Amino acid sequence: MLRGLSGRFLALLALTSLIACNTYNDSLLTGSLGPLLPVGGEGGMSAAGGESNAAAGTDQVADAGAQDEPGGSGGGGRGGAPAGEEGGSGHAGEPVSAGNAGTGGSSGNSGVSGAAGTTPTGGAGSGPTGDQIDDFEDQDEFILRLSMRNGPWYVFSDGTTGGVLGKLTIAPLTGADARPGSSSTAALHLTASGFTDWGAGVGADMVNQMAKKMPYDVSAYSGIRFYAKIASGTTATVKVLLPNIYSDADGGKCTDADTKKRCGDHLFKSVSGLKTTWDVYEVKFSELTQQTFGLPQTGFDPTGVYSVQFTLANKLAIDIWLDDVTFIRN
């Protein structure tokens, strides 16, 4: 009799222990974790026994890192610039999301939400207002490798005999050339003299594949913004041109064999009044026109843009600095 009761008691005790053990494991499983490293900070992570922990939100700014390749594209992203200046490349200017709240344990309280990340300052970095073509901080001869772009910078002229075209120069901003209040450390510098036709310029292709430029869709943008300054006594008007599939020979639509369809009549806008101190300028795509000597364009087609170019007539010497060339988002 005692042996029978003892056996049933031991069995009951073992069952009770097993149920308690299962209940403990279930409580661990039902207390879910907050999201893993959300942008802006970790949510709270639940702990066994109902205790909750919450990590402070962390600011995160995307940094693509250098991506230079032989014959390929230029360097990668950098962070935001000081307030009032252009945002850097990468994803500067883009708000960082707050972390989500973590879920509490089976008997614990809800975890505390991660703190919201701060928004990097800067007006025209990658973000709601702009998409940087180049900020020249890497000092290489390629635009930034952003939004599927990878083309090179180059200089060109009207070919006047005796004209002197300076080499493509991307140089540090020091002394009188520095941009006050800006974190910019380098910019593009063009010099030229002696050209008697339309002058000289500098440009960049948007996409380059196997040493051949390809059309690029700029439908997401409404214009181009850039910083510029000139040397004293030099040409103070720059033309901003957008060669495309209708005006560039590579598009196959224009031809110099037909005087009504000649190539080179790119859509453009003249920006006058450049200063000897740094200032910002904008060109809206809706403001672009033609000189009307070539194949007519009924309007701006944003789907087939090859390049962006800056040209200056050489009535005076040419000496211009360009910096933070940026597409303006719609």
Structural write-up:
- By secondary structure, the protein is mainly β.
- It has a domain at 130-329: Galactose-binding lectin (Jelly Rolls).
- It has one helix at 2-30; strands spanning 45-46, 52-53, 130-134, 153-157, 164-165, 169-172, 186-193, 200-205, 207-209, 212-214, 221-230, 238-242, 267-271, 279-284, 307-312, 318-329.
- Strands 3, 5, 6, 7, 11, 14 and 16 form a seven-stranded antiparallel sheet that branches.
- A hairpin with a 2-residue loop joins strand 9 (207-209) and strand 10.
- The N and C termini lie far apart (90 Å).
Helices and strands, with pairings:
Blueprint: H1 2-30, E1 45-46, E2 52-53, E3 130-134, E4 153-157, E5 164-165, E6 169-172, E7 186-193, E8 200-205, E9 207-209, E10 212-214, E11 221-230, E12 238-242, E13 267-271, E14 279-284, E15 307-312, E16 318-329
Antiparallel strand pairs: 1-2, 3-16, 4-8, 5-7, 6-7, 7-16, 8-15, 9-10, 11-14, 11-16, 12-13, 12-15
